[in-house]
Amino acid sequence: MRAYLIRLARTLLVTLWAGSLWTVGYLIAPVLFATLADRRLAGTIAGSLFRAEAWLSVACGLLLLTIFRAEPNRILRNNGSRLVIGMLLCVLIGYFALQPFMAEIRAAEAASGGVMNDAMRTRFGLLHGIASVVYLIQSLLAAVLVWRSCAEQG
């Protein structure tokens, strides 16, 4: 019974994490930018959603590491832990390392009356591009984690 509950908790956490990651990044954020005429408002809302996603990722990742640590199957424990650590590193890099620099550029833009000079625009674009690649890597790691979780169930 205990093993079943642990497997169930792991499955729910993997599903929550991967599903929220994909929903925010590949459904909600693009719809915001496609729907709202004010790109700054869309960016503000998307930023709030990505902040919530980052904290959810940290919580799911830490809980999953705890669950994988208790896993008796060494291969599953090691592989699952590596995927979760990889995903957590992506969150740390993408949100907690790059996002503050992007916020700094947005604040400077707001202070200058909403005008972003070429250097700021270039720097923001570069940071946004790197953050997007890191998010994509995290999304792909999530797909592998889901795949392995399903394969382990069957």
Question: Helix and strand layout, with pairings?
Answer:
Layout: H1 2-35, H2 39-69, H3 74-111, H4 118-153
Based on the model shown, name its key terms.
mainly alpha, single chain, 154 residues
Give an account of the 3D structure.
The protein has 154 residues and is mostly helical. 90% of the residues lie in helices and 0% in strands. It is built from 4 helices and no strands.
* Total beta-strand segments: 0
The coarse overall form would be elongated
Q: Gap between N and C termini, in Å?
A: 18 Å
Q: Figure out the total of helices.
A: 4
Low-confidence stretches: none
Strand content bin: under 5%
What structural class results from the helix and strand content? mainly alpha
The major sheet is characterized as:
none
Name the helicity range: over 70%
Please provide a brief summary of the model.
With 154 residues, the protein is mainly α.
